[in-house]
Design a protein that fits this description.
Elements (H helix, E strand, L loop, with lengths): L4 H17 L11 E7 L2 E6 L5 E3 L6 H13 L10 E2 L18 E3 L5 E3 L23 E9 L9 H16 L6 E6 L2 E7 L12 H12 L13 E2 L2 E2 L6 E6 L16
Antiparallel strand pairs: 1-2, 2-3, 4-12, 5-6, 7-9, 7-12, 8-9, 10-11
Length: about 260
Amino acid sequence: MELPRGTVYLALAMLALAATVNCSCLCLNNKHVVNCTSISSTCRCTSFGSNVTVDCGTLSSKCLLMKAEIYRKNSGRSNRPQHAIRDNDGIYDPECDDNGNFKAKQCNGTDTCWCVNSAGVRRTDKGGKDIKCDEVVRTSWISMEMKHSGTETDLDKPSLESEIREKLAQRYQLNKNHITATYEKPFVFIELKQNATEKSDTDVDIVDVAYYFEKDIKGDSLIVGPRLTLDSSTGSLQSNDVIIYYIDDKAPEFTMQHLNPGLY
C-alpha cells in the first residue's frame, strides 16, 4: 500500500533527525548535514542529498546547499555592469562534482539542459541534452542590493558600512579586501569581488558567501547560533530580502530573442 506523501516526508525527516542526533560533533556552519564525525578536532559531515563530505570549519558550497534544500523539500538601485545576471530560474536540483562544485552542464531531469557559471546560475539559453558546456565560467563579482525597511531614523552611514564589512568577514570568513558596502538611504549595496588568482584552496568563495548571506537575510540561516545583525551607531538595518546579481569572467551567451528580464 502506498503511504501518503506527508507520511513519507515525516518519516524521512525523522530519520535525518536521528542521524543528526547520533553525530559525534555539531556542524556549526551547515545545519543540513548528517553522519557527523570529529576527526582531529575537525567536524566532518555528509551533506543532505549527496555523498559529499563537508568540512564544518568553513562554508559549504552553494551547489551542495541547493541540493540539500531540494532534498529537504522533497522529503518533508545602482548602475548594473553590462553583463550582470540575476538568477531568474530559482532553486533547482543541481549536479555537483566530487568537490561539491557546480558542473558546467545542468539539466532538469528531462531533455532540457543549460550551462551555468560557478554560482550555478544559467548563462545560456536552454537546449537539449546535446548542449555543449565546455567550462564552468567563474563568477568573480557579485552585487547585492537591499532596501532598508523602517527608515524613520537615518542610520549612520560610516558605522553601518564598516559593520557590514566586519560582520561579513567574521561570519563568513571572507577577507575584507573582497568586500565593499555602501549605504544610500533606503538602499544598501554590497559588492563582493574575488578573482581566481586571489583565492587559495582554503579561502571561502564569494559565491558561497552570497548564498549564506541571502539565507541569513531571509530568515533561513544555515549557521548554528545567533542570527545575523547589522548595526550602526544610530540603529539596526532591517531587511528581509536581497537582490543578487552575478558578473562572470566571460559574458553570458543568451540570444536576444530569449533575453530574460534579469540580464543587464
